[in-house]
Amino acid sequence: MPERDRDLIERIEQLAHEEHELFAKESTAQASSRERARLKEIQDQLDECYDLLRARRARREAGLDETTVGISPA
């Protein structure tokens, strides 16, 4: 597994851990409005991370340069 993927997967794991903690608070109606807002931010960040990981893997499988994912042409 490429180092860049490892870094991204570690980030996903960190976010997922925080998300689970906040879900636990939310499920018992103990989450503050700030925590609920953070939960939404985490969900958005996780979506972006998973999208980036899938794009990198797809480009690698297609024999393309994965480092250009997310870079728009000039």
What topology does this entry show?
Blueprint: H1 3-27, H2 33-61
Verbal overview:
It is a single chain. The chain has 74 residues and is an all-alpha fold. It has one domain. It contains 2 helices and no strands. It is elongated. The model has no long low-confidence stretch (mean pLDDT 90).
Query: Outline, from the CA principal axes?
Result: elongated
Number of DSSP E strands:
0
Using only C-alpha atoms, the radius of gyration works out to 16 Å
End-to-end distance, in Å? 30 Å
Order of helices and strands: HH
Uncertain segments of ≥5 residues (pLDDT<50)? none
Describe the largest sheet: none
Structural class: mainly alpha
Return the average pLDDT rounded to an integer.
90
Q: How large a portion of the residues is in β-strands, by DSSP E?
A: under 5%
Helix content: over 70%
Q: Helix count, per DSSP?
A: 2
